[in-house]
Specification:
175 residues; alpha+beta; Aminopeptidase; 8-stranded mixed β-sheet; 8 strands; globular
């Protein structure tokens, strides 16, 4: 699986890749509406025992064990993990002015916790630009990003070869 831009999609299709789903690039440059972010909220998204949560919830969303991949390949010195009992978000610095959210996985219908987590990422990383790739067809997720002044732009496609991945897109708030 890989995420490709519209212009690249045709090239990948020539190599037998097929489209799984459409994603949008969510881009934050500041200017979110004012919101409360208390110490209690910060503590509610700072679960220190997040590895078992990542292991179990990520497996339900992606239908495979990815804990080793996440801890060995995605986590960096700049990583920040926010989590509740219903999901987690990993973000890291691409460079000094850009943060990428990848991955962000939540239980379906855990909107209140998702809102706490998006507030947390803006609170902790909001002086920088933030980028995420979000499933375009999941209204609850795109509405959450828009409500915090993320601009949804540029279409991307999740493409695959061989067997179609069985992803639960309603749990994936960012790739």
């Amino acid at each position: 699986m890989t995420l490709v831009q519209t212009a690249e999609k045709k090239i990948f299709e020539e190599f037998d890749f097929q489209e799984h789903s459409q994603f949008s690039q969510a881009f934050y440059t500041g200017g979110a509406k004012a919101f409360n972010f208390s110490n209690a909220t910060a503590k509610s998204i700072a679960n220190e025992n997040y590895l078992p949560l990542i292991d179990s919830i990520d497996k339900r969303a992606f239908r495979e064990k990815r804990l080793e991949y996440i801890t060995n390949n995605l986590m960096k010195q700049s990583s920040l993990i926010l989590s509740t009992a219903f999901g987690y978000q990993h973000s890291y610095g691409l460079h000094k002015n850009m943060i990428k959210i990848s991955p962000w996985v939540m239980e379906d219908a855990a909107y209140t916790d998702a809102e706490k987590i998006i507030r947390g990422i803006i609170y902790h990383r909001g002086l920088k630009n933030i980028i995420a790739f979000v499933p375009s067809g999941i209204k609850e997720i795109t509405d959450l990003y828009r409500s915090y002044n993320f601009e949804l732009r540029d279409d991307f496609y999740l493409v695959y070869t061989n067997k179609k991945p069985n992803l639960d897109l309603e749990m994936i708030y960012a790739l």
